[in-house]
Amino acid sequence: MDSLMAKVNESPLKQRWTSICKNKLLRFAVGELFGSYILLMGTQASGFGKYGIVAGGLSCFFTLSVLIEILAPVSNAQLNPAITPLFYLFRGQTLYQSLVSIAAQFIGGFMGVLTLNGFYTDKLIVFSNVEHSFKLAISEFIGSTLLGFVLMIATHRKKHIPFLVAGIITAGVFIIPSCMIVNPMITVMRMFMNVTFSINPLMVLYVCIAEFLGFFVGAILAEFVVVEGEKDLYSNIDEETPNTENKMKPIGELPDEPIELPNIEKAAIINDDTKTQVSNQIS
């Protein structure tokens, strides 16, 4: 059995598959396409079934938290064309990775639209004629600012990212009048779904602009008000600490050099010598 597994691992097909899986651009494309497909279905299906705002909020929370936890190591789990530029500007994501991610997000979202329309309507493509007031764009600006603020802080601290992002979006579903769309991909795809939360094409343009502006404002607030302040605080702590080897490190990061364990035999010899010296002094 072991020899068979060794032959399989050494086969050209296995090596080719491994090289494909390690291709970063392909991982970004597949991760964002699959994630956006599931995201759109998981967050928009409640509108077709008319389950209400509570069901919509719960589906948003569980869908987002699971997708972010699973896809963060694959493609940073952006799933949002307004988040992708922030990761490019502030989180070291490359231009090619960002462009591939945005294209995959819209393709995955459109696939989700076709699936939902096929499940709940008689047509795969339905154009929305639902009218909304300009308050929709204003509420999306506020919601996008909140999400951008929380997202940039969470990705800086690298703690509880799925819970924080899914939590703020779920809270916005119950608070923000627009029910916290905060995703230009989903906003555009709502043109092709004729349900109560659909958006007509002209309002889609205004809402998308408001979302991009909101994310940028939230990211600026996070970077220069909170994140930069934390960096200054940590540097002051390090300067006051005499032992510079014990500086703060992110959770899970290993030390630069291996920790040297004490020599037990040497310690025992020193201990015996100390006892001999003490007994000689007493005598």
From TrEMBL:
<dbReference type="GO" id="GO:0015254">
    <property type="term" value="F:glycerol channel activity"/>
</dbReference>
<keyword id="KW-0813">Transport</keyword>
<keyword id="KW-0812">Transmembrane</keyword>
<keyword id="KW-0472">Membrane</keyword>
<comment type="similarity">
    <text>Belongs to the MIP/aquaporin (TC 1.A.8) family.</text>
</comment>
<dbReference type="Pfam" id="PF00230">
    <property type="entry name" value="MIP"/>
</dbReference>
<dbReference type="GO" id="GO:0005886">
    <property type="term" value="C:plasma membrane"/>
</dbReference>
<feature type="transmembrane region" description="Helical">
    <location>
        <begin position="203"/>
        <end position="227"/>
    </location>
</feature>
<keyword id="KW-1133">Transmembrane helix</keyword>
<protein>
    <recommendedName>
        <fullName>Aquaporin</fullName>
    </recommendedName>
</protein>
<dbReference type="InterPro" id="IPR023271">
    <property type="entry name" value="Aquaporin-like"/>
</dbReference>
<feature type="transmembrane region" description="Helical">
    <location>
        <begin position="136"/>
        <end position="154"/>
    </location>
</feature>
<feature type="transmembrane region" description="Helical">
    <location>
        <begin position="161"/>
        <end position="183"/>
    </location>
</feature>
<feature type="transmembrane region" description="Helical">
    <location>
        <begin position="51"/>
        <end position="74"/>
    </location>
</feature>
<dbReference type="InterPro" id="IPR000425">
    <property type="entry name" value="MIP"/>
</dbReference>
<dbReference type="GO" id="GO:0015250">
    <property type="term" value="F:water channel activity"/>
</dbReference>
<feature type="transmembrane region" description="Helical">
    <location>
        <begin position="25"/>
        <end position="45"/>
    </location>
</feature>
<feature type="transmembrane region" description="Helical">
    <location>
        <begin position="95"/>
        <end position="116"/>
    </location>
</feature>
<dbReference type="InterPro" id="IPR050363">
    <property type="entry name" value="MIP/Aquaporin"/>
</dbReference>
